[in-house]
Design brief:
By secondary structure, the chain is mainly alpha-helical. 71% of the residues lie in helices and 2% in strands. It contains 22 helices and 2 strands. The protein has a two-stranded antiparallel sheet.
Length: 440
């Protein structure tokens, strides 16, 4: 996780470094030509990453003409961080903190908002500040204020860094579980709003949401007892707010707390208020845990029918395929898993469902040899799953080892004129072409 945060910060702190000069707004007794000369000097040194030689000229401009141009702060950030990284002298980080304050003072209402700059200030302090609890708390405070000011406009890197630091605060018991969970729901809602709005940052927001989710579930804060206590209070206070109800259902479902009575209550209420595909899916999961497969299938089909192509619909189709498989509906399992792959070709679990469906088809062929041919196409699917989806690689590998033991024998193949490596076509609803492989 630390490597991830450092990588993200590198993009965050170094992404803006070349802006045109703003109008001169300095004291009347300042030599404007001298200021412009010093700007030219430090700019060239910064381009060469020669931060030490850039410092005197930059300091002159920063001290005598702090409102001269925005670039004073963008370049100054590079200079302070660059010198600190080579010297490890925290005095430069102290200066960096003051730089952010003056950036807000002179340019906080222009291209970069106060909230955005505070996010950078908190991130820099966390990364470069003196080790210790007070630094951690201070950094969290800046980023928390940034989020409070920016809301749905919060930079995706600030959101990730804020939640990472919140996790550190949770471990040290500087944040209570309910505060941490509340922050998660707020961040999730803001990021999801940004994703829905689209735009150039959509892909970065999707990645940010995945990282925030991962941090949340790795934190251990999402145990069912805690969620039940906190979310029951939230539900009682927001019964008519469908947005809040969706967040509660999503949290309980992703935390595998769907056996809680609260999940049933909120899910059924949400479906009554807004019978959307998402609400139908939430009910399907509830009935699946109760092993009521008929109702599970009914609500899954409704969820699929009401959803547009996309990640959610692919998940619904996959879940239906898994239900089909558990009920022995092998052709249906393949059909729904194939529909899943149409929407998401790299969803390894869908390939695993198809492979298992092939392996369970006991009626293929006229004899034991032909029946064992189904294990060839089953293993093909597992191998494909392993290639396209690292998340299922371990499971797929075990299935490959298990199913390969059921391949036909070489002796039986000899009498049928089939040699290793021959192309073989399997018919029926399987309808796949594969390569012959044998056990000894």
């Amino acid at each position: 996780m630390k490597k991830l945060i450092v990588l993200v910060l590198g993009l965050y702190l170094g992404g803006e470094s070349t802006l045109m000069a703003q109008t001169v707004e300095s004291k009347s007794d300042i030599d404007t030509m001298e200021v412009m000369k010093e700007v030219s000097i430090y700019t060239e040194f910064v381009k060469q990453k020669n931060f030490g030689d850039a410092l005197p000229a930059w300091r002159y401009v920063y001290t005598h003409a702090p409102a001269f141009q925005l670039n004073t702060y963008l370049r100054g950030e590079d200079i302070m961080i660059g010198i600190y990284q080579s010297t490890k002298n925290h005095a430069y980080i102290d200066t960096l903190m003051m730089l952010y304050d003056n950036w807000i003072k002179y340019f906080g209402n222009q291209r970069y908002s106060e909230g955005y700059i505070l996010g950078k200030k908190g991130a820099s302090l966390y990364r470069f500040g003196r080790p210790g609890d007070e630094t951690l708390k201070e950094a969290y405070g800046y980023m928390r204020k940034s989020f409070d000011l920016e809301g749905a406009r919060t930079n995706e890197v600030t959101a990730q860094m804020l939640f990472h630091v919140a996790g550190e605060m949770l471990k040290k018991e500087f944040l209570a579980k309910d505060q941490y969970i509340d922050l998660y729901t707020q961040l999730s809602a803001c990021i999801e709003e940004g994703i829905k709005n689209g735009g150039r940052t959509k892909d970065r927001l999707v990645a940010a949401k995945e990282r925030v989710d991962a941090m949340f579930y790795e934190s251990g804060a999402a145990d069912c007892a805690t969620l039940n206590r906190l979310l029951t209070v939230r539900y009682e206070a927001n019964k008519a707010d469908t947005t809040v109800l969706k967040e509660i259902v999503s949290l309980l479902r992703r935390s595998e707390c769907v056996d809680l009575p609260l999940y049933a209550t909120v899910t059924e209420e949400l479906y009554r208020m807004n019978p959307s595909g998402e609400a139908a899916y939430s009910l399907a999961i509830m009935f699946l845990r109760r092993q009521d497969f008929a109702k599970t299938e009914t609500y899954l089909r409704e969820a699929i029918a009401k959803s547009k192509d996309g990640p959610a619909k692919a998940d619904y189709c996959l879940r239906l395929a898994q239900v089909n498989l558990s009920k022995g509906q092998l052709q249906e399992a393949k059909r729904n898993a194939s529909e899943t792959l149409r929407m998401n070709p790299n969803l390894g679990q869908a390939l695993i469902v198809i492979g298992k469906a092939y392996g369970l088809y006991r009626d293929y062929g006229k004899d034991d040899f032909e029946h064992r041919m189904v294990f060839w196409v089953a293993v093909d699917k597992f191998q494909r799953a392993k290639q396209v989806d690292p998340g299922v690689a371990a499971e797929a590998g075990k299935l490959i080892d298990e199913y390969s033991q059921h391949f036909p024998s070489k002796d039986d193949a000899f009498f049928r004129g089939i040699k290793p490596g021959d192309t073989v076509k399997l018919g029926d609803w399987i309808n796949e072409t594969t390569i012959a492989r044998f056990n000894k």
